[in-house]
Fold this protein.
Amino acid sequence: MYVPYVPLRAQQLLDASEEMLMDMQIFPIDAQTAAEFDRLRQIKKLKKTGRADLLIACIALARRATWVTRNVNHFRQIPGLKIENWVD
């Protein structure tokens, strides 16, 4: 049976992603995260930051965690956020 390359590769990537996600811890949005979000929304220079990105940053801030991202320039403007780039 012939299996096209693209769907087979997509399935392999999905399987690998599922394996990686099984080891990840999911952090819920709690009161501390919400407080960080409210605080950062008041900062004028962050008004253009998307709500989802700001929420991600707030989860990291609330847990005093380091945010690992390739998009360092985008998140660098968020005060107090520790950032690392593991790609470049």
In short: The longest strand covers residues 66-68.
